[in-house]
């Protein structure tokens, strides 16, 4: 049974959204997604809520989701992980044949959080890995290890960050787009050497809702359905002392799963555009390598500016990339449209201290 993206809705991203509560962000994204899918909220059979209690500031945070996405007295499955993991869970539900349509929801209200770095501290092992220093220290270790094992340099990382931010000036949804060059990025305040402040995506508020459906639902109502032809997710070693910090093992395993399902043999030749997690600039290059994409692919990586320009939206970050991938494949990406885009690879990462990643392959529906 095929699985299709019927509609997408995105409300964001904003450095702060004091005029909208997190519930209003979600409700607006849901209304957009249902309209885009050509269905009413009553026609959605169930939902997947992708959010973390600790980030939301509420215990059992998914209990606050049904009203906004119109899922009262309908099944909601919760994934405290990356948005693409939620997409995978929804796809499996549709393939059981018991669900015709499933909505996937996630959000970030980062502006409500006063001490964002403290959230990262709590993700580390309390005995062995909390050192009383910046929680970004692991990113510094990763970047040093990655640069030492590849032909990439710190300048390449800085250049990726500067180009992402500069190219996104044509994207009205990218609040952190700016004119910076690689030298500016390298000269910025050191956070965890060699990682500088401008190599780290700044937090942002946003909500994303995606409606998935079966072949039947796609034929019946969707104006421009996008096929989810392959998806996979995996985690690297959870013990950071035993992990190889030169690579993203989680991405490599997830990519193999997605490529096999989508019958992708040569990703660089067969994909027209790709989206990778770049919460840290060096991670974009690391994820490219794990996906089997070379530096020649860089002009077609994150044409929306990625998280460097759009912001770190916690669990919703890869959802924002998925949203832009759908727009690309529909030919609706505006000034940053990649000409002739028919197939996209989307990768998501949970963030430090994990190596939990997911990969999806999306394609235009063939007539």
Which descriptors apply to this entry?
35% helix, 13 helices, two-stranded antiparallel ribbon, Peroxisomal Thiolase, Chain A, domain 1, 11 strands, alpha/beta, 367 residues, nine-stranded mixed β-sheet
How would you explain this protein's 3D organization?
The protein is of the alpha/beta class and 367 residues long. Helix content is 35%, strand content 20%. The protein has helices at 22-37, 53-56, 83-95, 116-123, 137-149, 154-167, 182-187, 215-221, 249-262, 267-270, 281-291, 306-310, 317-330, and strands at residues 3-14, 46-50, 76-79, 101-109, 190-192, 195-196, 205-214, 226-235, 273-275, 343-349, 356-364. It has a 9-stranded mixed β-sheet with strand order 3-2-4-7-1-8-11-10-9. A two-stranded antiparallel sheet has the order 5-6. The longest helix has 16 residues, at 22-37. It is globular, with a radius of gyration of 19 Å.
Write the SSE topology:
Blueprint: E1 3-14, H1 22-37, E2 46-50, H2 53-56, E3 76-79, H3 83-95, E4 101-109, H4 116-123, H5 137-149, H6 154-167, H7 182-187, E5 190-192, E6 195-196, E7 205-214, H8 215-221, E8 226-235, H9 249-262, H10 267-270, E9 273-275, H11 281-291, H12 306-310, H13 317-330, E10 343-349, E11 356-364
Parallel strand pairs: 2-3, 2-4, 9-10
Antiparallel strand pairs: 1-7, 1-8, 4-7, 5-6, 8-11, 10-11
Helix content range: 25-40%
Largest sheet: 9 strands, mixed
Arrangement of strands in the largest sheet:
3-2-4-7-1-8-11-10-9
Overall structural class, as computed from helix and strand content, comes to alpha/beta
Number of helices in the DSSP assignment: 13
- Let me know the average pLDDT: 95
The gyration radius over C-alpha positions equals 19 Å
Quantity of strands, as a count: 11
Distance between the termini: 17 Å
Let me know the CATH homologous superfamily of the domain at 3-113 and 204-221: Thiolase/Chalcone synthase
Shape from CA axes?
A: globular
Poorly predicted segments:
none
- What is the CATH level 1 assignment of the domain at 3-113 and 204-221? Alpha Beta
Query: What CATH architecture label of the domain at 3-113 and 204-221 applies?
Result: 3-Layer(aba) Sandwich
Order of helices and strands: EHEHEHEHHHHEEEHEHHEHHHEE
CATH topology of the domain at 3-113 and 204-221: Peroxisomal Thiolase, Chain A, domain 1
| SS strand fraction | 15-25%
